[in-house]
Automatic annotation (TrEMBL):
Protein name as catalogued: Energy-coupling factor transport system permease protein
UniProt-listed InterPro entries: ABC/ECF_trnsptr_transmembrane, ECF_transporter_component
Family matches, as PANTHER family: SLL0384 PROTEIN
Pfam name, any one: CbiQ
Gene Ontology, cellular component aspect: plasma membrane
Ranges in coiled-coil conformation: none
Compartment(s): Membrane
Top-level taxon of the source organism: Bacteria
Transmembrane segments: 12-30, 36-55, 62-83, 103-127, 235-253
Keyword Membrane: yes
Membrane topology category: Multi-pass membrane protein
This protein's UniProt keywords: Cell membrane, Membrane, Transmembrane, Transmembrane helix
Species, as recorded: Cohnella phaseoli
């Protein structure tokens, strides 16, 4: 993904503010059309102004698509009878009736998952974690102890992955391949955990000393290499995005395709 896209240049907090109310809204929809439209809008945003290629977006969304298909297939058999009461029966076998309402609500549930994915993809794929944390510390006054601690933890993950590969290579050199069957998994985990834990403790201790030496978390005002603020393009991008979403939702509403907004309706 290109790092120079329009969405990459927006303030990370602007993107968070943009998608948060839409996320809450999509969880309350009960029709399939509203989340479907949100999927289309956000996928278009990711590809047109976020720099994501269609192939990359399709590859990233494939796991959620598989989960959505599973939810849509299982939902008609799990939905409350109160919801399907009076709905036409589409299929009946083995004493189990598949109602039209169950199929519709199953499709709605699957599309809600895809809509949530498309919203979060726009944010995650165009936002650097370090930029997001620093913007929160500068603009939302999040504690620097917490912010830099989160950054340190996130950077531990690739370090520990490298450490694990080193440990595995050392075991192979010594002929300690272990049992490759499922039963040998516990033994392999036991042999890897102790050196990994020791490496993690050493890295955590060194990081803590380094942060303390540099005054991270002190009460003195900090300076930042890259200052973050809300610029005119952030407000413009936020307004355009919300306007597009509002027009799309209003169109669905005027066409009488929008269902009731209730998170608890389908599960009561």
């Amino acid at each position: 993904m290109r790092r120079s896209s329009l969405l990459h240049r927006l303030n990370p907090l602007t993107k968070l503010i943009a998608i948060t109310p839409i996320l809450f809204f999509v969880t309350m929809t009960t029709d399939p059309w509203t989340p479907l439209l949100l999927v289309v809008v956000n996928a278009a945003a990711a590809m047109l102004v976020g720099g994501a290629s269609p192939a990359k977006y399709a590859r990233k969304s494939l796991p959620m698509l598989i989960i959505g298909v599973g939810v849509a297939a299982a939902y008609p058999f799990l939905v409350s009878s109160r919801v399907t009461e009076g709905s036409p029966i589409l299929l009946s076998f083995g004493g189990v009736d598949v109602h039209e309402a169950g199929v519709v609500y199953g499709a709605a549930a699957a599309l809600r998952l895809l809509a949530i994915f498309s919203l979060t993809f726009v944010f995650v794929a165009t936002t650097e974690l370090s930029d997001f944390i620093q913007a929160m510390m500068q603009q939302w006054k999040v504690s620097s102890r917490f912010g830099y601690g989160v950054l340190a933890v996130c950077r531990f993950v690739p370090d520990l992955q490298k450490e694990l590969r080193t440990i595995q290579a050392a075991h192979r050199v010594r002929g300690m391949l272990g049992d490759r069957r499922i039963g040998g998994l516990a033994e392999r985990v036991r042999r890897y955990m102790l050196p990994l834990l020791a490496a993690a403790i050493r890295r955590a201790e060194r990081t803590a000393h380094a942060m303390d030496a540099r005054g991270f978390g002190s009460s003195k005002p900090r300076t930042f290499y890259r200052p973050f603020r809300f610029a005119a393009r952030d407000w413009f991008g936020l307004a355009v995005y919300w306007l597009i979403i509002a027009v799309a939702v209003a169109t669905i509403y005027e066409m009488d395709y929008m269902g009731d907004l209730s998170f608890f309706k389908l599960y009561g």
